[in-house]
Write a structure and sequence with these properties.
Length: 344
C-alpha cells in the first residue's frame, strides 16, 4: 500500500504502479472495507504531485442546480458503487492501473452555500494538481464544476472538449441574471477563452429548451452539435468519427453528464430527458475516444436521492471507469511507458 512507499528510496515507476493498485477483491471482498473510488488507495491532494499520475476526486456541490438537487451526494454514492469495478476493461482490454499510478484524493472542500467561492476552490485544487503533473478525473456534483476545471486546465491555451449530455449547457443566465449555473458552464468557459468552441463537440443533446437561443448561440460560436436526432439517423460510429475530427489531437477535456443516458437506465439525476442513450450505447460511444490527447475528464449529475434503485450510481461509476481507461491510455501514450512520473 501507499504508506510503504516512503521506505523505498528512490521509488521507481514500477514500485509506484505496484503501490497504487485497487485493493483486490481476492484480498478483502469487494463488499468490505472503506469506500474509495475504484478501491484505490486514498491520498491527500497535496501528496499527489510526483507521486501519482491520475487523481480521482469528488466534487460534492449542487449549489448551481436550477431544478432538482441531490448531486452533492453523488461522489459518496459513486465511490460505493465503484467497488463493483474490477481492474481490466473487457471491451478494450485496457488495464488503467498497469499504465498509471492512480489514487482517490478525496473531495474538494466546496462551500455548499456559495457558488463563487466554490468555483474558486475547485479551480485552486485542480490547478494545483495540473501544475503538479497530475491528471484529474472528477466526480460531481452538478455540471458547473466543469467550468472551474476547464479554467484550471487551460493553462497553455483553450482546450477542445467532448461533451456528452442531454443539454448543451450553453445558456446565458437564470433567475434574473445568475450567470453561474449548471446550465451555463460552457458559455462561461468560451467567454473566458478557456474552451475552444471550434474544437468542441456535444453529443446526444435533446432536452427541451427555455429558448432556441441556447442552441443557436452554441452553433454561432462554432460548436459541433451532434444532437440525438443526428445520432439516431447516422449511428454511433459516425458520431465517434465526426467528434474525433472536430476535437483533433490537441489537448482536450472529456465531460460526461449522466442525463445523456436514458432515464430507463439512469433515472437518478436532476433533469432526466427521455430518448437517451442506452447504457450499452454509452459504453460504445465512450470507448470510441481512445488515443486522443485527453488531459482530464469528469462524470457529473448523479443524484442519489432521486436514484431509487441505485442503478444510476452504478452507471456513473462504470462510465467513470471508462473515462479512467481513456485518461490512463492517453497519458501513457503521451509520456511513454518508461518516462518518469513527474513528466506530464
Ligand atoms: Mn450538463
Ligand atoms: Mn444534462
Amino acid at each position: 500500500m501507499a504508506q510503504n512507499l516512503k521506505k523505498t528510496n528512490p521509488v521507481t515507476r514500477e514500485q509506484r504502479l505496484e503501490a497504487y493498485q485497487p485493493l483486490s477483491g481476492m484480498v478483502l471482498p469487494r463488499f468490505a472495507g472503506i469506500s474509495t473510488f475504484m478501491r484505490l488507495p486514498h491520498l491527500s491532494p497535496t501528496q499527489a504531485p510526483g507521486e501519482i499520475d491520475i487523481a480521482i476526486l469528488g466534487i460534492p456541490f449542487d449549489g448551481a442546480t436550477t431544478n432538482r438537487p441531490g448531486a452533492r451526494l453523488g461522489p459518496r454514492q459513486v465511490r460505493e458503487a465503484s467497488s463493483l469495478m474490477r481492474q481490466v476493461n473487457y471491451g478494450t482490454l485496457v488495464g488503467p492501473y498497469d499504465l498509471c499510478a492512480c489514487a482517490d484524493v478525496g473531495d474538494v472542500p466546496i462551500n455548499p452555500i456559495d457558488v463563487v467561492d466554490t468555483i474558486r476552490r475547485i479551480e485552486a485544487e485542480i490547478s494545483y494538481l495540473h501544475q503538479g503533473g497530475v491528471t484529474p478525473l472528477s466526480i460531481g456534483g452538478d455540471h458547473i464544476i466543469s467550468y472551474p476545471i476547464l479554467r484550471a486546465l487551460a493553462s497553455k491555451g483553450p482546450l477542445g472538449m467532448i461533451h456528452i449530455d442531454a443539454h448543451s449547457d450553453t445558456g446565458d443566465t437564470f433567475f434574473g441574471g445568475q450567470k453561474l449555473t449548471h446550465g451555463t458552464p460552457f458559455r462561461r468557459a468560451i467567454e473566458d477563452g478557456v474552451l475552444d468552441p471550434k474544437r468542441t463537440v456535444q453529443i446526444g443533446i435533446r432536452g427541451t429548451m427555455y429558448s432556441a437561443d441556447e442552441r443557436q448561440w452554441a452553433l454561432d460560436q462554432g460548436i459541433r452539435i451532434i444532437d440525438m436526432e443526428e445520432v439516431v439517423e447516422k449511428g454511433i460510429p459516425y458520431a465517434i468519427t465526426e467528434a474525433r475530427r472536430v476535437v483533433g489531437m490537441e489537448p482536450a477535456y472529456f465531460t460526461f453528464d449522466i442525463d445523456s443516458i436514458d432515464p430507463a437506465f439512469a433515472p437518478g439525476t436532476g433533469t432526466p430527458e427521455i430518448g437517451g442513450f442506452t447504457s450499452r450505447e454509452a459504453l460504445q460511444l465512450v470507448r470510441g475516444f481512445r488515443h486522443l490527447n485527453l488531459i482530464g475528464a469528469d462524470m457529473v449529475e448523479v443524484s442519489p436521492p432521486l436514484d431509487q434503485s441505485g442503478n444510476t450510481a452504478l452507471v456513473g461509476a462504470s462510465i467513470a471507469f471508462e473515462l479512467l481507461c481513456l485518461l490512463a491510455e492517453a497519458r501513457s501514450e503521451r509520456i511513454g511507458k518508461d518516462a518518469q512520473l513527474s513528466v506530464v
